[in-house]
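During the reporting period, our protein records have gained a structure token line. One record among many is quoted in full directly below:
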Amino acid sequence: METARDAVASYVSGAQRFFARSMRIFFGKPIRFLLPLLLIAGYGIYYAASQPDEYQSSGVLSVSSDTFLGSLTQVRDTQTNFQSVSTTIATQFNDLMQTDGFAQSVAEGAGLADPGGDALTDLDKIRSHVFAASVGDSLLRVTATSDDPEVARLLAKSGIASFKNFVISSEVAGSDVAEQFSDDLLTGYKKDVESASQALQDYLEKHPPPPNPNVDRDLPDQFEITRLNDALNRAQDRFDKAVDDRETARLATLQSSADIGQRLRVLDEPKASILPLAGLKSLATTVILFGILGLIVSAGAIALACVLDRSIHTATDLERIGASVRAVVPHAKGLKIEGSRNTSASQRQKVPARSAG
């Protein structure tokens, strides 16, 4: 226990000596150690003053996990989520902004990309200037910043539209595939119906009925006509079923689009801001950050100078280099030495000279 206390006391004593030595070095030449702080703080003021003004524009959406249309049509499955709907959608939006495809669509929607699809601005810059955040449990805010208020408005508006289009394309992807598949089947089934109908018509033209209406066709003709008619009915049934499937897929697409329109409703359209985002608060924050950095550099310089300093000022400095101290002359407060160090010429003349004898 005594060893631990001695170690702690030695550490505290060393820290106190280091601090006292640092203060002595600092106050010996304060301008030298304050110079980094002044330079870095000055650069911070210049940097904050030279930054262009930024404008912010945001739009607010009402989001919900279920709608009346969705409950009626069962257009999608309801999943249990422990997060709020706005938090989930905000996370999804910000994750999509990290992809080149979605960021490119936002740039194109804001008019920042040419028709060929090559972005005129850096996508990383767009990612850092467009983001979403939840406002409560059922509101989502999409915000965009830019040095041009109109560009900020267009970016926020394009972000909302691109996200809605992405959600619609994601949820109707299955019905779109089913609709396309049904269209492909209809093309083939229509040809089958036309071929079966043409085969039956050609056979009837080649084998007309007997002149006497009371006389039936021959059995081979009846069998062949029955077979061709059954083939036509089967082809027609397949075609009708494909038409029903296509209409079902198209209805699912319309239902999904309408359901998404209810789940993601724009309450406040983005507007161009008149006042810039930056102000005295932003300027003060930047200057304070640079000032803290300068303070750290100055403190590091003082600590380094203290470590490298080998001058002797106190008895402790002698003990640090291994010299033993026997006695220390105490410093008496208020002690003054009166009198002049040098005597004047007149006083020196009054002093009688000693004789040689």
Strands lie at 55-63, 130-135, 139-146, 264-268. Residues 219-263 form the longest helix (45 residues). Residues 135 and 141 are 7 Å apart (CA to CA).
